Amino acid sequence: MPSERVDGAPALDYIEPIDVLNLLSMPKFLIIDCRRILRTGLLPNTAVFRRRGEETLEKAMGRIIEDVMFTNPPEDQSRALIVDYNGAGAGVEAEDMAGVAAYLSARVGCSQCMRIQGGAHALMASHRFLFSLSKEAAANLPSKLSSRLFIGSTASAIDAQMLDGLGITHVVSVLRRQLQLEHVPRERHLVLHVGTTQCEGTSGVRHLLKMALPFLVEVLSGADDVRRVLIHSEDGKGAGATALACAALLADSAGQMDLDGVIGHLAQCRPAAPLPAPTVQQLREVEAWLLDGVNDGVNDGVPIPGAGDVDEDYLPPKCAHAPSCDKTQAMSIALSIGPPPPSSLPPAPLAPPADEDEEDDDGDFAG
Question: Which residues contact 151 (CB under 8 A, 6 or more apart)?
Fold first, then answer.
């Protein structure tokens, strides 16, 4: 990311407006609004910088930081977002930003100061829905994993304004209940019902891949960024949705990332949704398969490793929507979805039977 350094201040890293989305889903950090044209904060948890009378910058910042630490202390003091109006490199706002960055570095211990490319004006033009978010709404924001792949919660999926603002065209819901989205065409919404009966043993990830990967490959394999997909669980932390997002990102990376790289990227973009160790192990068992040509039509019939051991009797009873963008066809989720998936999968490694699988709040699997 490009940056500029001002004497006495840390480098100000330029971030794109879309990157603000992921920042807001991370532990709360400092946001200082240096705009001169408004007196209210632009983003949630924002402190507005302004001098009172003849205050020096240092005195004004001391007062502002004291108030922030007393009323709304940040969880992460190592980073800060400093906002101006249009991203200008010179002028009064630019001078204020440099002074604020220098103060945060010297007095607060901030090691990374960021500014938005194009400033608040660019953010308003492309992501107006981020303006004036409540703390609750900010906590439910989705995270961007790639230009076409997002992960989030049900609150994200039902927010039509947010989906439109992010250009999200397709939704995959990994839930224990029915969900209908009036603002998403039926053929672009795939609902996977996940419960303990579908996640017993060691084939939970393969089970999800068999049901959802053809749909995701169809969405992600376009030549442009017109199609974008949100994968979500109820609270945005479900292991099933997170594992599916990892598999989709791995398949869509065209070999540029291995599984460890994908997991690290996920932890950076959405630290609130860690993967349980058993789920990571299941992903490792299909990693080579995902990297070996999924983008060429779901491996052209090469079976998903281990998916052949999934008992069709334990598949959810029905699928809310067929995934094809061109055809709408209600079907059982036990049947083929979208482009025909592999008919069988190399057997999964044998594992001792578990007494009872763990189930998280979303009904997803932990092992």
Answer: 142, 143, 145, 230, 231, 232, 236, 241, 242, 245, 266, 269, 270, 273
